User: What shape does this take?
Amino acid sequence: MSTGPAQAADWEPSDALDERLTDPERLAFPEDYTHTESWQRAITERNEHGGPINEAERMVWLEDSDKPKRVLFALIEDDLHAECGCASWQYRDWCAHVAWCWWKWVRGHIIVHHMDTGRDYRHPPAWLQFSGDRDRDVSGLTPAELDAYLTCDLAGVGVTEYADATDRVKGTVGNLLSRARVKVEGER
Ligand SMILES: [Zn+2]
Assistant: This one.
């Protein structure tokens, strides 16, 4: 049951985070991923060793490994991005470590950080979508515009409700949203 502080001391925070974040891969689930060996391994894992080492990355240490793996698992723009240093990820873009992160996140056991807006998510947000091609480009939005756009337009939260939840007046969120829409959808 002990998580061993001595082990944690071996994990260095990343200096190279900015470099790594230049183009992390968008997470794509393999077809039928719940039947993959990685998924089965992730959901039967009882080991709780590991933890976040910075806002984007965590160490994931599965029972049958002798070493933890460093996993990037973070929200950027309107996507979930993931990367792992293990061989399975390199060859198949899917592995038990990333599967573990998703399994834990869905159950509310880990917090995932949004690198642009600074928000922490205890569960996958409603705006996160994995299927279909999108031509939406949110890269020009400010953090506050992006946050409003994701929450209100993509996840369908009411402007008043979101303003109340974040201690702002409705007009502030409404203005952010208007500016975001113009940038994303173009001038009309
Ligand atoms: Zn991995």
About this structure: Confidence is low (pLDDT under 50) at residues 1-16. Residues 170-185 form the longest helix (16 residues). The chain has eight helices and six strands. Residues 5-121 form one domain.
